[in-house]
Design goal:
heterodimer, A: alpha/beta, four-stranded antiparallel beta sheet, 26% strand, globular
């Protein structure tokens, strides 16, 4: 079964602009780990935003977990997002909530009872290695720690799909590797993981499926791929 | 749903505490504007009582001819009393009129000593339910059948202060409309100010709203805590207003403002004024709550568009 199906999708933000995505075909089956690579402006973020139904495709169809996102009624959009865990470069944590409350929020949203929140949130925070910082606010945590909270939040309700948009963009290489191994562990529990990144080191280190975007088109799709040749030559 | 409400209330409380500066800004805006509206409305209540008291003084005096047979006078009095505009008709005899005059001049009785006998006429004093109808009632009296047998000259002897009554009503009308206009203007200004403050507070948290939506929160899930927070802010601001207004009212009445008005020649009832005051306080609290809730909802609308 395909968790993500993108069929001939074109996205043009404003009439007359160059398309951000140009007739893209792309499938991800359940349990896969995919790196989406490409330089800035290649369409990675557009891709993630489409999957979250922040935007709609100009042409083509996008299916997430079997649902056509263009046909989704507005009140069903929150339900779609609950089935997708998201991790972002800027963490997107609620600044007025502690680490615990940030993770708990994802469960409150889906009406989980208090006793489940009390047991599951610490469990997930321990899993990401933040066992002692339950009551810290985001601005009291380091970048790596904030990203762990964000991963804990994205994962706490066990979504079938986890999207990460430049998850290591603000982190140093050592921390980046830790975050990546966290995502890898989540992937091994059966969750499909898509990571958009231009961090060559992590892509080359993990040897997963690599889909390369350039100018809105998929230029390469390799299992156990690497970041790419051209960029290597440039540096 | 009820269980969720507990969560929303908790959320609203913590968010109130953690965004304390914005909360204080909103509360003080609510307090200041509602205080302005409230105290001005209270003043307008007192003012309208003063105006009412002035208007109530207007009555019709029907001077009767001395030769009028008493059964005819009685007949006229009985007829007038049945009219719906009239609240009371009193007969003042020649002697009563003189007594009244004497009591008015009791400090200078020598003025009346010069009077030859009793030059005063007996009269009917007609008091009205709505004094603005004074003109039409006077006209109706003049048109009664056989009125000439009772009144010498109906055009002159039916008196209600023809000269000053229209002016009085013109002035009171201006005062009333000015009061209503000022209060509505102040009310509108308060509404705009409060909603704007709440909007600023929510605008500074628009990123939070965006994050909540990404995590899959439904619009109502996001809206409830914000609206409850707005309600708290409105409630606290209105409560402060009510407390201050209450203190002002108590000290005003302690210094016997009612007696002061009586001394000015205006009789005023304490009880209706007091109940109006309590209704005002209730309205302020309700207003605070409603403005807080709707202000938040309006401010959120922009950030909740799908």
């Amino acid at each position: 079964m395909n968790v993500i199906e993108v069929r001939k999708v074109t996205k043009i933000y404003e009439e007359g602009d160059k398309p951000a995505l140009d007739a893209v075909d792309f499938y991800v089956s359940k349990g896969e780990f995919v790196f989406l690579v490409g330089p800035s402006g290649s369409g990675k973020s557009t891709f993630i935003r489409l999957l979250l139904r922040e935007i709609l495709p100009t042409k083509g169809e996008v299916y997430v977990a079997g649902q056509n996102i263009a046909r989704l009624r507005p009140w069903k959009i929150p339900r779609l997002r609950r089935s997708i865990g998201c991790v972002f470069q800027d963490f997107k944590l609620l600044p007025n909530k502690t680490a615990f409350e940030n993770v708990a929020f994802a469960l409150e949203v889906i009406n989980r009872p208090a006793h489940i929140i009390r047991t599951q949130v610490p469990e997930v925070l321990n899993l990401v290695g933040l066992g002692e910082k339950f009551n810290s606010y985001p601005d009291e945590l380091s970048g790596g720690e904030q990203q762990r909270v964000s991963i804990a939040r994205s994962f706490v309700n066990r979504p079938p799909l986890l999207l990460a948009d430049e998850p290591t963009g603000n982190l140093d290489p050592a921390t980046s590797q830790e975050i990546m191994s966290l995502l890898n562990r989540i992937n091994r529990t059966g969750t499909t993981v898509v990571v958009a990144t231009h961090d060559r080191e992590i892509v080359n280190a993990w040897r997963k499926r690599v889909v390369a975007l350039e100018g809105g088109k998929i230029v390469r799709d390799q299992t156990r791929g690497v970041y790419g040749y051209e960029e290597q030559e440039l540096i | 749903m009820r269980k969720k409400m507990v969560y929303f209330i908790k959320e609203a409380f913590t968010s109130f505490k953690r965004n304390l500066v914005m909360s204080i800004a909103a509360v003080s805006t609510v307090f200041l504007t509602l205080f302005l509206v409230g105290s001005f409305t209270f003043l307008a209540f007192i003012g309208s009582k003063l105006i009412d008291a002035q208007e109530k003084k207007v009555e019709i005096e029907v001077f009767l001819s001395e030769s009028a047979p008493s059964e005819k006078i009685q007949g006229l009095q009985n007829r007038i009393v049945t009219w719906s505009e009239v609240s009371r008709v009193r007969y003042v005899s020649k002697n009563d009129a003189l007594k009244r005059l004497k009591s008015m001049f009791k400090d200078a009785p020598e003025i009346l000593e010069e009077l030859p006998g009793n030059p005063l006429s007996p009269s009917l004093q007609v008091r009205l339910k709505d004094t603005r109808k004074v003109e039409s009632v006077a006209l109706k009296i003049k048109k009664q059948p056989h009125v000439k047998e009772i009144i010498n000259d109906p055009d002159k002897d039916v008196k209600y202060g023809q000269k000053y009554v229209p002016k009085l009503f013109a002035v009171t009308r201006i005062f009333r409309w000015a009061g209503i206009g000022t209060i509505s203007l102040l009310g509108f200004a308060s509404l705009v100010l409060i909603v704007n403050t709440i909007r600023l507070a929510i605008f500074s948290r628009r990123r939070e709203v965006a994050i909540m939506r990404l995590v899959g929160a439904s619009n109502w899930f996001i809206r409830w805590p914000f609206m409850l927070e707005g309600i708290f802010q409105g409630l606290i601001g209105a409560f402060l207003t009510v407390v201050i207004l209450f203190i002002i009212k108590t000290s005003l009445f302690k210094y016997q403002i009612i007696q002061f008005f009586t001394w000015l020649g205006v009789s005023m009832d304490y009880q209706p004024l007091l109940s109006q005051f309590y209704i005002l306080l209730l309205a302020l609290i309700l207003g605070g709550i409603i403005i807080g809730a709707t202000g938040s909802a309006i401010a959120l609308r922009r950030f909740l568009k799908v």
